[in-house]
Design a protein that fits this description.
Helix content: 25-40%
Structural class: alpha+beta
Number of domains: 1
Shape: globular
CATH class: Alpha Beta
Radius of gyration: 13 Å
Distance between the termini: 13 Å
Largest sheet: 4 strands, antiparallel
Number of helices: 3
């Protein structure tokens, strides 16, 4: 399994709105993608820092959802107004999961 991790910064007062938008947009769209294995979000409400993790069955599935994909472009457009700093994107192989 593989994971895309996005580190994002937004205004703390928008936390609930960001969470709702994530549920409506990312969770819904991620389920439709080939190789989708789920999502996880971590948020620090005090600072507005968030970590989004999307999980993919294969590395090819992960790569098919990269910046050039329509899937990614659509989601980027929905969240760009919230970010107060450039997001950081990284990809990992999941080596342990319990």
């Amino acid at each position: 399994m593989y994971a895309r991790v996005i580190f994002a910064q937004f205004r703390p007062e928008q936390t609930d709105e960001v969470i709702q938008r994530y549920r409506e947009a990312v969770v819904t769209e991620h389920r439709k993608q080939p190789g989708s294995k789920g999502v996880m979000v971590l948020i620090d409400r005090a600072t507005g820092k968030g970590i989004s993790m999307t999980f993919w069955e294969t590395e090819a599935d992960l790569q098919a959802s990269d910046e050039a994909s329509q899937y990614y472009q659509d989601l980027y457009a929905k969240f760009a107004p919230y970010w107060t700093a450039p997001q950081v994107r990284e990809a990992y192989e999941v080596t342990i999961q319990e």
